[in-house]
Amino acid sequence: METLNELTTVLKPFEYVTRESSGQKYVTISKIIPMLNCLTTELNSITPNSAIVKECKDVLLRELKRRYGMIELNDHAAIATILDPRFKNLHFQDPSACGRAIQKLRTMVVGQLSSPSESEDDVSSTAPPEYDFWKHHKELAHGHKKKKKSHQGDEVSLYLSNPVVSLKSNPFAEWDDMKLVFPCLYKYAQQYLIVVATSVPSECLFSKAGATMTQTRNRLSSKYLEQLLFLGNLNAEKFFV
């Protein structure tokens, strides 16, 4: 029983990451790098007594490094993470990869630069009492606010100089508030943050399409099928707005 409890402790963060990265109604692409950092940190903090669980932990860490060790060099994931006001450059473990992404973002920014604005105080989030996967992130965010400096320069430097926002914040809502200050970055945030992190949403859509277009309804046109899938994906409250 003790071995099973230790194994559950090791696997619990993987369950959280799997569920969190498979969402389709919130931003997911920018969570990949932060979640991998938090996941690795949490695994390293676990010290199992069982030899089997210890071996399992070591294998998981090796596989994480093998499969996702170069994720910070992925331009889309890196830039999306930087453009997410909740994370920015907090979770990058490779300074050169972080600098590369920031430099690429700078080259993408064109037009007139906005003047810096006063940053708003971070709204602290209330962690779930039973389990807080983002503990490592909050520690990093707290340190980031202490090291905050004022910058006079391009949009990217001004944006990165502001503290990260609460984990409960909606990145798109935050960018709506910042679009007058960072008009160029706002445009790129709209492009990068809409990408989903996994294929789960599209697989769910295909499954719904298969359940809708059955043999008894095989004469549905593509137009009506699209409308049915759209309506079926709406929340109940949307029908009464």
Automatic annotation (TrEMBL):
Pfam families: Dimer_Tnp_hAT. Residues 155-231 form the HAT C-terminal dimerisation domain. GO terms for biological process: regulation of transcription by RNA polymerase II. One of its GO terms (molecular function) is protein dimerization activity. SUPFAM superfamilies: Ribonuclease H-like. GO terms for cellular component: nucleus. InterPro entries: HATC_C_dom, RNaseH-like_sf, Vacuolar_transposase_reg. PANTHER family: DNA REPLICATION-RELATED ELEMENT FACTOR, ISOFORM A. This is HAT C-terminal dimerisation domain-containing protein. It comes from Arctia plantaginis.
